[in-house]
Specification:
Blueprint (H helix, E strand, L loop, with lengths): L22 H16 L15 H9 L17
Length: about 80
């Protein structure tokens, strides 16, 4: 006997206990549950280096931190 389980042997991911969902609604639910089960994978690491090259490094050099509070808009002028 094989260690692999067939689709018939696996427990169902969900069961409809009330209502009368359409085939499309059941398909959407199955797709969402499959995506949740799959997970997000490895998160990307941001490129945060001033020597990255191109326009990406340009914005690291010219942008300033946003100020909060009364009259903060005045501090956003170029220095």
């Amino acid at each position: 006997m094989s260690d692999e389980t067939t689709l018939e042997e696996q427990a169902p991911a969900f069961q409809v206990v009330s209502g009368n969902p359409t085939d499309e609604e059941v398909a959407v639910l199955a797709a969402v549950l499959a995506a949740v089960r799959r997970g997000r994978g490895r998160p990307r690491t941001p490129v945060d280096s001033a020597i990255a090259g191109g326009w990406r490094s340009h914005w690291h050099l010219v942008r300033h931190q946003m100020m909060q509070g009364h009259g903060a808009w005045r501090s956003t002028a170029r220095r």
